[in-house]
# Entry
Amino acid sequence: MRSFTAGKNDDGVRLLRFCEKVCPTMPKGMLHKAFRNKRIKINGKKQDENYRLVAGDLIELYINDEFFAEGNNNKFRPVDYSALNIIYEDDNIMLVNKPFGLLCHSDNKDESNLIDMILSYLYEKGVYSPEKENTFTPALCNRIDQGTEGIVIAAKNYKALADMNTVIRDNLLEKTYLCITEKPVADGRYTAYLKRDKTAKKVSVTKNKTDAESKEIITVFNTLDRKNKYSLVQCTLITGRTHQIRAHLAFLGSPIIGDRKYGKAHKGLDSQLLCAYRLLFKDIPKESSVNYLSGKVFEYKNNSVSEYFNKI
# Structure
């Protein structure tokens, strides 16, 4: 038997989710049975799986020790975060620039990645104390490809993470990208259909829906400037699918320069020139913990795509 006291970042978490986090190796069928057999209690009383924890709750789990994780701290390892480029930060979230070539996450402990840098920064600031958390770890709310530069959102507490995920799910966040294409693309709003090939780690785009796996994509393209054969293009996502901008532009005959997967290699470039440079928060509901972001715009102005275009 082990007991836990629900903290600030456990407030509002479903009891089942909490148990899955602290008992990661316990089979789900056995966990459900533990609920039925009253082996999981809150403040001395039986609660069902959907109970929402309240800070201060005493959680008692009459479960074999073999199923418990060693602790939230065992996955944390401090790394050098000196290169972390913070665009904005408050008590709930951080907006950071992920440079070209850096992964958002990695299962390889020796591979540099953005979330490890963020955790180390928050740990040094005293904002994140893994030894004091039951299940929560600050997390990214969105991801961008390793070969793409741009703004990534990190949540510093559970409430902000849940609310920001809702903002993204409900399309209350407008994401705008910059890229450089070798061929011009006519300004406008384009609709097509995208299908993923998980084996090839690639997507294909068609004009019409081909089957149930084809998902509608909508992208708005606006050319900001042109130099010789190159175009600086602003891309606004209406839908947000895997590789949407890259594959959509290639389908339209205007692949991003340096995009080896959907276009071709470009001398002196290791990745596609694509940057998630602008975020616009729309009208977020008042009950949300991140409501204060409504109407705010954040831009990464000194981005590598703009700098490269200026040197052409």
